[in-house]
Structures are given as structure tokens and as C-alpha cells.
Specification:
Layout (H helix, E strand, L loop, with lengths): L18 E4 L3 E2 L10 E6 L8 E4 L4 E3 L4 E4 L9 E7 L4 E9 L15 E7 L3 E2 L9 E6 L11 E3 L5 E4 L10 E10 L4 E12 L8 E2 L3 E7 L7 E4 L2 E2 L12 E8 L8 E3 L5 E4 L15 E9 L9 E11 L7 E2 L3 E7 L4 E6 L1 E2 L11 E7 L6 E5 L6 E5 L10 E10 L14 E9 L6 E2 L4 E6 L7 E4 L2 E2 L9 E7 L5 E3 L5 E4 L14 E10 L6 E11 L7 E3 L2 E5 L6 E8 L11 E4 L9 E5 L4 E6 L6 E10 L7 E14 L2 E3 L6 E2 L2 H11 L10 H10 L1
Parallel strand pairs: 2-8, 9-15, 17-24, 26-33, 35-42, 44-50, 49-52
Antiparallel strand pairs: 1-3, 3-6, 4-7, 5-6, 7-8, 10-13, 11-14, 12-13, 14-15, 16-19, 18-22, 20-23, 21-22, 23-24, 25-28, 27-31, 29-32, 30-31, 32-33, 34-37, 36-40, 38-41, 39-40, 41-42, 43-45, 45-48, 46-49, 47-48, 49-50, 50-51
Length: about 700
């Protein structure tokens, strides 16, 4: 037993609509069991069904008649009692001040350093210390007092009354743990601290809020009754353990309200929207609209009249299924097309009651009969769903004047099982072919012939053959040259015979791969006149009409070279074998050439030029004769320029003077200057000089 025992006295003032009222102040000299202590009024606005009461002093209870009565004889009591009433719709507390009963003895064990519960506190709490000395004061510490949020709770230092300085928000902080102690005026701890627990009772001060203001959902037409469309969800920030956050959903408006104002139902607790309308009436094509708007209300307090509400809008779209087959607007379509032309000839139109721009509406067309040559094709116009029938192979009026096609239409999506394609999904198309004046046609095209080049001018080359497709009309044809690059040909305008007007030359730049190409035009006498073109290809055979020539035309050699080989030269010929190689290359016919030069055969196309003795620095023109193997053979006299140069340090210094012709006097003079002289022992010096000059 502490010399200064103390107790906690708490009272709460209600702030909610429902209320408990304890009438008056009880002044009782003594309380015995079965005696009515105080009548209590409690009203939860819903009939008080299931209400329970809890009294802070275990010696008292509230009976079924809402009277505060003792359980047993009560010899003493605290100065106040608390009555806590709870039902499904209300949670409230009342304070009863008790007088006339003796207080607890100072020797009654006190609560020290224990938890002092302030359960369901709203505003004010008072702590009174029994037999407190006047030089002691109360002190309140903890979050909400001297810690953030500071100053929310304050305590009267003299009376121990704890009060709230401003409004509490349970949704921000739902409970507080404070410590109460007593100190002397110097701040020294006298007693405590004791833990004071304050629980903030929830008030219904938050409306239900939907996650979204507008919800969207879809349901397939013809869906069974009870099909779930979507779920509406609202949140309430109040205490989820109370009815303050117990939500109930309801549909208060449907727009439009046809064919029934109750096409949909919402589960009051879960918020699921389901269909009520029968599958037969849920027909997208017969409903007044494909979009319905529902106004949904969520109410707390389990939907009671005093509950707070929140609203949202649900937009439900009736989606389409392929329950309608496409149908042609006409059983027969007609079209006409000029022979020889291609392109779209007719557009086929269909009706489909399904949702446009969906696979259940988009059409696929096919030709089921009447097109064995595959001259027609049909495609869907993506803009309007029409079938575009086209001619892809030109039609011939003379072959067939009339075509009958059978066209079938289907959807991209398959039809539902109980719907099929009927006769209206097939149509007939009559296509009339119109006659036009067609141009003459060459056959064969191209016409290929083989001719020898250099045939005499006026020689026959070919006979053109062009016919008029308009066999029902008697029309004449005239021929003319349209393109003749070399100007070698002429054509008879009536008969179409082609003759040479100039020699044919296989080696001409207008000939490619031995082929010469010319184009001719044929014109009928229809109105208007029509033309056609044909190609003539002449394969030219080779004739030995080109003499061969020698390459290269220049060769260089050092004057003091030990190797007397000058160069290898080859023969070239524009003609084809056997009018070209093998070639025969030999020295020219000038006398004395074989004293200084020699030509030796290397192979069928090349020969070796050699010098038989040294020559002084100069340029020499060496005459050569080259002959091909044609029948008869062709020869060509040509010259090769041989430069005899001074070679020093891998550099050749050649003469820029004119070349010496390899005639006999020039060669003899060169030999006299270059051949060494032999001095006879029996000759005089003058005789040796004369002999040397002669040599």
C-alpha cells in the first residue's frame, strides 16, 4: 500500500447522432442488489436490436428494461461510472456521477505504473489523484501531448483532467499512448508514470468513394440471364470493423429504360452488375441503343437511411455476335466491259445487320462458278464492304461475248451455330463483252531468222505475218518499219516482205551477240485505225571480211642487250573462227630484212620478234605481214615500231627522232657503222680503212 493511493476518473462526451442519456445525478446512501439505480435511454435509430451494455464498475449492469442496477451490494464506489452501449448501428458512451457512496479507502490498492485504459474516448478524460498533496501537480507526456502532434491532449495540473484541444481524426491516428505522472513543483517525480491508452472511436464522417467516376463494361448480346457484366468498387475510409464502412450498392437510374427499366441488377454487397433481361430481348439489332448508362449509389451504414452515399456511372455496351448473315441487295447484277481491257467492272452491295467494322460485319466474296479461265477476281472494299468485281485477263469479244458468274459472300467471323447462309448470300453477275477495233497481231513475235552478213543489197530477209483479231470484219493490213537502228532494212507495205537496203555488217555496233533487232508496225483500216507491233531478230553469220592486225604496235629494247628477243606480238581479227586464228606473222617483203630481224612462231596467235645483231640507239619501223585462216584468207601489211634505247641504271633512254625505215641502204649503212673491222696483217692501214668502210 502506497501512502498516497490514487485512482483514474474518466468521462466522455458523445459526438454522434445516437446517444445514451443517464438521467440526473444519483445520490444514494447505499446501494443493494435488485434496486434500480438509474434509468438509461439508448436509441440507435434502428430499434435497439442486439444492443449490449458495458458498465465500468463490475458491480453494476444495465438490465433488459434499460435500468442501471447493481449486481450485488455496493459498499463503496468511485465518483463516476461509464455506460458503454453498442449495437449494429450505434456505438456510444455516457457518464454517471455517483454521490452518496463512500469512496474507496486510502488503503485500497492503487494502480501504479499500470495501463489505465481510456477506451472509446471522444473528447475529455479526467484523472484525479486521491489524497493528492497540494504541492503536487499532474504531468502528461507522449505523442499527442509534448510530442508530435504536440498539444493535442492537455492535462489540468491541479485536477488531472485530460482534455482534447482540437478535433481528432481516427483515419489519421486511431489511438494514442500517453503517460500520466505527478511531480512536485521542482519537477521531481512523485508518482507514476502510468500508461494512458486513448482509442479514438470512429464516427461516420467519410462518404464512400468509387475508385473511378465512370466505369465501362461489355456484355455479349444474347447472353444468359445472370451474366456478370462488371464489378463496381467503392472505398470508405471509416473503421472497416463498424457499419460506418459497411457498404451496400444500388442502381438508382438506367438510361434508356427500354425495353425494361430493370435490365440489370447489382449485388448489394459485392457490387457485381449482372443481366436480368432475357437472352431473346438482349438483341443488339433490336434494342433502341447499344449503350446503357447506369447510375450506381454506394451507401455506408449497411445501407441504412442515415448512411452516407457516393455515386458513380457505369456504361455498358451490348457487343455484337455474328448472328446475321450478309445478304446481297439484289439477286442479279449486270456489267459490261470492252474487250481487251482490265479493271473493276461492277461493285456488289450487301446488307449485314451486325456491328459495322467488326469481323461479324466485314464481308469476304468469292466466285463460285462461271470463271474457268480465271479471268475475274473479286475483292472487298474496306471502306464500304462492297465487292469489287474486276477483269484481270483481257476478254475477247470474238471468243465469248457473254459471261455469267455466281458470287458468294460470307463474313470473316463464322456465324453462330443456329444461323446459316441462305440464298440471299449468293448473287448472279452478267458481264457483257463489247467489241472494239483491235490492232493486228504479229505471229510469231519475235520472228527470228539467220542471214549471212554482206549479202547483196535487196536480198530477201523475212516475211512478216500479222493478222487482225476482228475476224468478223474484213479489214486490210499495211506494214511499215518502226525502228531500224542501222537503216539496213525495207518492208513491202502490202505483202510484209523484208529486204536489205544496205549491207549487213556483223561487226557493226548495232549488232549485239551476232543479233540485229528491228521493229515493224502493222495498221488496219478500221475506224479508228488500230496498230500492232512485231519484232524481227536477224542472226548474222560471219563472213571473212576483216583483215587481221598485229598488237602491240611499239616495242623497246636496249642497244647493249645480251637477250636479242625484242617482243612478242599477237594477231587480232574482228571475224569469228574459222575466219580468224591461227595467224601467220612474217617479215615484210623488203630485201635484206632477214639480215637483221627474225620472226619466230610462238603459238597459233603470237610470234617472237628478234634482232640478229646489235643496233645503235634509234627508232626502227619493222614491216610485218599477218594472214588469217579464212577462206579465202585475208592478209594485212603492218609495221611495228622498235625503239633501240640506251639503258642505264634500270632506266631506258629512247630516241624521240623519227623512225628509220628498214630499207636496204639504211640497213647497210647501219651495218657498216656497227660491224667490227678486222685488220689484215699484210695490208696497209689505208687498205684496212677502205675495207672497213666497204663492209
Amino acid at each position: 500500500h502506497h501512502p498516497h493511493p490514487w485512482v483514474l476518473r474518466v468521462y466522455v462526451q458523445s459526438m454522434v447522432q445516437t446517444h445514451v442519456v443517464a438521467y440526473g445525478r444519483s445520490c444514494i446512501p447505499g446501494v443493494t442488489s435488485a434496486r434500480v439505480f438509474l434509468p438509461v435511454e439508448f436509441d440507435d435509430c434502428a430499434g435497439n436490436e442486439g444492443v449490449t451494455f458495458d458498465v465500468s464498475d463490475p458491480g453494476f449492469q444495465v438490465d433488459g428494461d434499460l435500468n442501471l442496477v447493481p449486481h450485488q451490494d455496493v459498499p463503496y464506489s468511485g465518483p463516476v461510472l461509464f455506460i458503454h452501449g453498442v449495437s449494429a448501428h450505434a456505438d456510444d458512451m455516457a457518464l454517471v456521477e455517483v454521490t452518496g457512496l463512500p469512496l474507496r479507502s486510502p488503503h485500497t490498492p492503487r494502480v501504479s505504473r499500470n495501463v489505465l485504459s481510456c477506451i472509446h474516448c471522444f473528447i475529455n478524460t479526467e484523472v484525479i489523484l486521491s489524497d493528492r498533496s497540494e504541492n503536487h501537480i499532474f504531468r502528461l507526456t507522449g505523442p499527442g501531448a509534448d510530442q508530435d502532434p504536440r498539444g493535442l491532449f492537455i492535462i489540468d495540473i491541479d485536477t488531472g483532467e485530460v482534455s482534447v484541444s482540437r478535433s481528432l481524426d481516427r483515419e489519421a491516428i486511431d489511438s494514442y499512448e500517453l503517460e500520466v505522472s505527478t511531480t512536485d513543483f521542482a519537477g521531481n517525480l512523485v508518482d507514476g508514470p502510468a500508461l494512458l491508452l486513448i482509442t479514438v472511436i470512429d464516427q461516420n464522417d467519410n462518404r464512400p468513394i468509387f475508385k473511378e467516376t465512370r466505369y465501362t463494361g461489355e456484355v455479349l448480346e444474347g447472353s444468359p440471364t445472370g451474366t456478370t457484366v462488371m464489378r463496381m468498387t467503392a472505398l470508405d475510409a471509416d473503421d472497416p470493423a463498424t457499419d460506418n464502412a459497411a457498404l451496400r450498392y444500388n442502381i438508382i437510374r438506367q438510361s434508356p429504360d427500354k425495353p425494361s427499366p430493370n435490365m440489370f441488377y447489382i449485388d448489394a454487397e459485392r457490387g457485381d452488375i449482372v443481366t436480368v433481361i432475357s437472352p431473346a430481348l438482349l438483341d443488339r439489332e433490336t434494342l433502341p441503343t447499344t449503350t446503357y448508362e447506369l447510375e450506381i449509389v454506394a451507401k455506408d451504414m449497411a445501407g441504412s437511411e442515415v448512411g452516407l452515399t457516393g455515386t458513380a456511372t457505369a456504361t455498358i455496351t451490348i457487343t455484337d455476335k455474328n448472328d446475321h448473315a450478309p445478304e446481297f441487295t439484289h439477286p442479279l447484277f449486270e456489267a459490261s466491259v470492252n474487250e481487251g481491257s482490265t479493271g473493276v467492272v461492277v461493285n456488289l452491295t450487301v446488307d449485314d445487320r451486325d456491328d459495322p467494322a467488326t469481323e461479324a460485319w466485314r464481308a469476304i466474296y468469292s466466285i463460285s462458278n462461271g470463271d474457268p479461265t480465271q479471268s475475274f477476281e473479286i475483292h472487298t472494299n474496306p471502306d464500304n464492304n462492297e465487292g469489287m468485281l474486276s477483269v484481270v485477263k483481257p476478254l475477247d469479244y470474238e471468243a465469248k461475248k457473254f459471261h455469267t458468274l455466281l458470287i458468294k459472300v460470307e463474313n470473316e467471323d463464322p456465324l453462330v451455330p443456329d444461323v446459316g447462309y441462305g440464298p440471299s448470300s449468293t448473287a448472279t453477275v452478267h458481264v457483257s463483252v463489247l467489241d472494239v477495233n483491235e490492232g493486228p497481231v504479229f505471229f510469231p513475235d519475235p520472228l527470228v531468222v539467220t542471214r549471212m552478213e554482206n549479202v547483196p543489197v535487196g536480198s530477201f530477209v523475212a516475211s512478216l505475218n500479222a493478222t487482225d483479231p476482228d475476224i468478223l470484219q474484213m479489214q486490210s493490213i499495211r506494214y511499215a518499219v518502226l525502228r531500224d537502228p542501222a537503216g539496213w532494212l525495207s518492208v513491202n507495205p502490202v505483202r510484209g516482205t523484208v529486204n536489205t537496203s544496205a549491207p549487213l555488217d556483223r561487226e557493226s555496233p548495232y549488232v549485239h551477240d551476232n543479233r540485229y533487232t528491228a521493229v515493224f508496225i502493222a495498221t488496219d483500216n478500221g475506224y479508228p485505225a488500230a496498230t500492232g507491233t512485231g519484232t524481227l531478230v536477224i542472226y548474222l553469220e560471219d563472213y571473212n571480211d576483216n583483215a587481221p592486225y598485229v598488237v602491240p604496235s611499239v616495242a623497246q629494247v636496249c642497244e647493249d642487250a645480251h637477250d636479242m628477243n625484242v617482243a612478242i606480238v599477237g594477231g587480232w581479227d574482228k571475224d569469228l573462227p574459222p575466219n580468224g586464228a591461227p595467224f601467220k606473222i612474217e617479215l615484210g617483203k623488203q630485201p635484206g630484212l632477214d639480215k637483221t630481224w627474225k620472226v619466230a612462231r610462238v603459238n597459233s596467235t603470237h610470234s617472237q620478234i628478234m634482232i640478229l645483231h646489235s643496233l645503235k640507239k634509234a627508232n626502227y619501223q619493222l614491216p610485218l605481214i599477218i594472214t588469217d585462216s579464212g577462206v579465202p584468207p585475208l592478209s594485212n601489211s603492218t609495221e611495228v615500231k622498235v625503239q633501240v634505247c640506251v639503258c642505264k641504271k634500270n632506266k631506258m633512254h629512247c630516241s624521240s627522232a623519227h623512225s628509220h625505215r628498214n630499207s636496204l641502204p639504211v640497213l647497210l649503212a647501219t651495218l657498216l657503222l656497227t660491224l667490227p673491222c678486222k685488220y689484215h696483217p699484210h695490208h696497209t692501214a689505208a687498205e684496212d680503212r677502205r675495207r672497213c668502210l666497204f663492209c
